[in-house]
Design a protein that fits this description.
The complex is a heterodimer. By secondary structure, chain A is α+β, with helices and mostly antiparallel strands. Chain A is about 30% helix and about 20% strand. Chain A starts with 16 loop residues before the first helix and ends with a helix. Chain B has 6 helices and 5 strands, in the order E-E-H-E-E-E-H-H-H-H-H. Classes of the chains: A alpha+beta, B alpha+beta.
Chain lengths: ~800, ~180
């Protein structure tokens, strides 16, 4: 029998790929149900205030419509995330522009826009709070700016959704002791950094189809929502409260999903509840698919942030102590802000050793649509600040950006700022060396320094060093308690049953690869069920770079258990199928690679089992590793089972005639454990880098009175194929015990590095230390044309500047 | 209402619709060809791309009135029955499709590009696909898929740029079948 080549590590064709390239894949808007109606949302036109009256224009025959208000909600008027402050439909108070107030349904979707416009709502308007700074005034006691109160004032200051304090050391230094370190330090480097909101801009807008089923007596039996989403069980939970139904009466089915990036993590709970309310009242299936303009004003975006660093540094470039103050703009309701803030907090110290550190973080309320999950989930904000700040420290101390980082990198055996002992190998030094070599960094830096003074196009190269934790933060995975099933079909094939969703990243494919290797059968034999909560267990949400590592490991365990069950049926079929006893003598990996039976023999054995026992379902439930501990109260311990580590290098050209900056080359090097599918993994990194380039240079949400005004693809600009540089992806693979065959998470990592690497490169090119993204040509123009006298800030530290001073003057 | 006759994927079709109804909606609602997607509704994203008389158009910007007598090719007409077009095969093999929502438009844009430039340079590919947005891939896998599809076409008979192009490419006898991965 030939050796079976492991499928993990190779690049089979993605499971749902054929349907996608032939146009047969069924996205929610491609599906029609018999008797289906269409739904639309009437939204507030003000940011803050109270509803005074609602009037329906008599020019419309409203008897043809189903109209749903908050009064029609059978259960609680809330969209549950972590708290219940987020209304399903506004009943009286308005807290952000575009807040849903009323729902309409009609059999003809073309009449809906006019009907939405014919609902006239009058308000008693109040001045809105649109910035972190305004929200802080409310928190500090300005009653006119208080827009949010927690359930328990003892736990929450006004306007403050969540705070964290994370301090290095089992016994953190008192403030006064920390100040002594600052007082004695050779340098104190301060900086403030900001990031803007960013739209996920999945090409398929949010959309769902809902049905409601009644008992013969007319009472509600159950609801079913199909649609574009990441987390079917989040929506089940939301429906339970809105409809006052038990979980088993709230069925949720994920349809093919055209991109998500976090934008379909929490929001489907809103649109799904809305459509189900219309379905219940109308007696028809109801589809709501937003158009782009509505999706852009109504759904979540990345949290804007402000991060302040104050760092004590020694003359030889050692970080001595730091304080990091993070503020996120959470929007109008809590939603996921506390967990986004958590990831921002834990990633704020970066891959560096801090002898003393205090991170103080808060998420603030504003009268803007709630900000939510977006790839990176807080880490891109705090790592942007840190990696810009590290370049600033280097400049102050007089070291190169490279040397400063080398003197402070975390390495194997050290402790992170939460006190996590890094037992897995960590080699940031090696990653940095390789990334700089791959990108030809030193030669390019020297070349640009030589050519820039005589060129109108200033070129630069910069990098960022960072990490991203895989899986839920802290005790999150323990609480999720995820389960997977693998069921044998009547044909004798394994069918993976998970609520983990495919939305482009490759969930279906990589889980099938892991299963195939563990069962030692071909990849094509493995089936993956459509996520439908009536048949799949809760394997947790598809977020937090957890699917490959956490769910993949569960699939591996369930497959092993399935194989153990089938073993007698396989081994009884002839001596060629034996030899399992020798497997123990081989390495686990080698054993996986050995085929002891054909796919046909596996099927036969599985069918034999079914004939004898009727059904075969193997399952695996998450078991927290015994050596992983987290203290939620003290914010200390093992924040993540493991981390992916990376160094990204960006090369830029800034045209001093047009003030446009473009990325001209990009190298992304990361250590991500075993790469399960090299083609998909490269695609993940490249796609994340492209989003990161957009975050840095193109994508600006323009808010006026809390409303996104550029809510079109025409004026919210994401990178096109013509805008991107070559993106070179390099992997290092250090297997981790936490993932299947050593895999770690990679989904979010590539979002973290590009923005700071690009701005570091722009500083090299221009000598100007920009501190905010997005950085558009008008921002560059404003800064480059500012006369020294008109400037209110000096972003360059007051030490002897190197040759870049010349560049800046000439620019 | 107006009655329009056109040819879609080689099949004659007659539809009665409001004259300003978008070609995209006629394809999706009247002809039940849902491969073309709506991403933005204003001609920015290209996910509704189809070929109209051999030209790449955003079907969300074409009133059906303008499609009288037109030859339309949608993603459903690119493969020959179960036999994939080399472009589709290359998108599959090289990771050109992730979430898949831009893929139908991207494949038609590629077909249009390769009709025009059978051996495109990278610059021509980047320019040729710039009207089709992809949020997942960062385009690198797509460029590779296009280059591989172009390389494959050198081993087959080069397609012409006549209006019957779509017909001739989909019936190319050397088009490989969907293969099982190694």
């Amino acid at each position: 029998m030939p050796e079976r080549r492991p499928i993990v590590g190779s690049s089979p064709i993605r499971k749902e790929g054929l349907a996608k390239v032939t146009g047969r894949a069924q996205y929610v808007d491609d599906i029609s149900l018999p008797g289906m109606w269409y739904g639309a949302t009437v939204r507030s036109t003000i940011a803050r205030g109270a509803i005074r009256s609602i009037a329906f224009d008599p020019a419309i025959d409203w008897s043809q419509f189903t109209i749903v208000t908050a009064a029609d909600i059978p259960g609680k008027n809330t969209i549950i995330h972590l708290t219940e402050d987020h209304h399903c439909l506004a009943a009286d108070r308005i807290n952000h522009p575009g807040e849903p107030i009323l729902l309409l349904a009609h059999p003809d979707k073309t009449v809906l826009p006019a009907a939405v416009a014919a609902v006239h709502i009058e308000y008693d308007e109040l001045p809105g709070v649109f910035t972190i700074e305004d929200s802080e005034l409310g928190a500090a006691g300005d009653e006119s700016k208080v827009i949010w109160h927690g359930d328990n004032p003892a736990h929450h200051s006004p306007n403050t959704f969540k705070t964290f304090v994370m301090q290095k050391g089992d016994e953190p230094l008192p403030e006064a002791e920390l100040e002594k370190i600052f007082a004695a330090a050779d340098f104190i480097v301060e900086g403030e950094y900001r990031t803007g909101a960013q739209e996920q801009l999945y090409i398929e807008n949010n959309g769902v189809i809902a049905e409601a089923f009644r008992h013969p007596d007319g009472s509600l039996d159950s609801v079913c929502v199909s649609g574009s989403m990441q987390c079917p069980y989040y929506l089940v939970h939301a429906l339970e409260l809105v409809f006052n139904l038990p979980a088993e009466k709230c069925r949720v089915i994920q349809t093919e999903t055209g991109g998500a990036f976090g934008g379909k993590e929490d929001f489907p709970s809103v649109i799904g509840s809305h459509a189900a309310l219309l379905a219940l009242k109308s007696g028809h299936p109801v589809k709501i698919c937003y158009d782009r303009a509505e999706d852009l004003i109504g759904t979540t975006k990345r949290h804007p942030s402000r991060t302040r660093h104050r760092t004590a540094v020694s003359a030889d470039g050692k970080l001595l102590a730091g304080t990091i103050d993070i503020a996120l703009d959470g929007g109008a309701y809590v939603t996921l802000s506390p967990v986004v803030l958590s990831r921002a907090t834990i990633h704020a110290p970066g891959p560096y050793h801090w002898p003393h550190l205090a991170v103080r973080a808060k998420a603030m309320a504003t009268n803007i649509a709630p900000h939510g999950a977006f790839r990176g989930f807080g880490a891109p904000q705090s790592l942007f600040a840190l990696e810009r700040h590290m370049d600033k420290i280097a400049k102050v101390v007089g070291l190169t950006p490279e040397e400063l980082r080398r003197r402070n990198f975390l390495s194997t055996g050290m402790h992170t700022a939460t006190g996590q002992h890094l037992s897995d190998p960590v080699d940031m030094d090696g990653l940095l060396t390789r990334a700089l070599r791959e990108s030809n960094y030193h030669a390019k830096r020297a070349e640009f320094d030589r050519t820039n003074p005589t060129s109108t196009v200033k070129r630069g190269i910069g990098f960022a060093s960072f990490m991203h934790g895989s899986g839920f933060t802290g005790s999150g995975e323990r609480r999720l308690n995820s389960v997977v099933h693998i069921e044998i079909t009547p044909e004798g094939r394994p069918n993976i049953l998970v609520s983990s969703t495919e939305f482009g990243q490759g969930t279906n494919t990589i889980l099938a690869q892991v299963c195939a290797d563990a069962l030692r059968i071909p990849y094509d034999e493995v089936l993956v069920a459509q996520p439908d909560t009536s048949i799949v267990p809760n394997s947790g949400p598809t977020v937090a770079s957890r699917t490959a590592m956490i769910v993949g490991k569960l699939i591996e365990r369930a497959s092993e258990s399935l194989l153990a069950t089938l073993l007698p049926y396989l081994s009884s079929r002839g001596d060629t199928l034996l030899a399992f006893d020798t497997a123990a003598e081989e390495s686990a990996h080698h054993a996986r690679g050995r085929a002891h039976y054909t796919a046909a023999q596996f099927r036969t054995a599985a069918q034999h089992y079914l004939r004898e026992h009727g059904r075969l379902v193997a399952s695996a439930r998450y078991q927290a590793p015994g050596n992983i501990f987290w203290d939620d109260d003290q914010y200390r311990g093992d924040a993540y089972p493991t981390y992916a580590w990376a160094v990204y290098v960006a090369e830029v050209a800034v045209d001093t005639l047009t003030y446009s900056a473009e990325v001209t080359d990009f190298h992304a090097l990361q250590e991500v454990g075993k790469v399960i599918h090299p083609v998909l993994a490269k695609g993940q990194i490249e796609g994340g880098v492209a989003q990161g380039i957009g975050y840095a240079l193109y994508e600006k949400c323009v808010y006026v009175d809390g409303l996104m005004r550029n809510n079109q693809m025409t004026n919210y600009i994401m990178p096109t194929s013509a805008d991107l540089p070559p993106i070179h992806v390099h992997f290092e693979e250090t297997p981790s015990i936490h993932g299947p065959q050593g895999a770690k998470g990679i989904g979010e990592l590539p979002m973290d590095g590009p923005a700071p690497a690009i701005l570091n490169a722009i500083e090299h090119a221009t000598g100007i230390a920009f501190t905010e993204v997005p950085l558009l040509p008008e921002d560059i123009f404003e800064r480059m044309t500012r006369t020294p006298a008109s400037g209110t800030e000096d972003l360059n530290p007051s030490i002897d500047l190197d040759t870049r001073t010349e560049t800046e003057v000439s620019a | 209402m107006t009655t329009i006759s056109l040819t879609v994927n080689g099949q004659p079709a007659t539809v009665t619709a409001p004259p300003m109804k978008r070609l995209l909606d006629v394809l999706r609602e009247d002809l039940h060809l849902t491969g073309a997607k709506e991403g933005c509704g204003e001609g920015e994203c290209g996910s509704c791309s189809v070929l109209m008389n051999g030209e790449l158009v955003n079907s969300c910007l074409v009133p059906i009135l303008q499609a009288e007598g037109a030859q339309i090719t949608t993603i459903e007409g690119v493969a020959d029955q179960e036999k994939l077009h080399p472009i589709q095969q290359c998108f599959l093999e090289h990771g050109g499709a992730q979430c898949g929502i831009c893929t139908p438009g991207m494949i038609l844009a590629t077909q249009h590009l390769l009709d025009k430039y059978p051996q495109p340079t990278l610059a021509q590919i980047k320019e040729g696909l710039a009207g089709n947005l992809c949020r997942c891939t960062g385009y690198m896998r797509i460029f590779e898929a296009v280059q591989q599809a172009a390389a494959k076409s050198t081993t087959t008979k080069s397609t012409t740029t006549e209006s019957a192009t779509t017909e001739s490419t989909t019936t190319e006898s050397t088009t490989p079948k969907l293969v099982t991965p190694p």
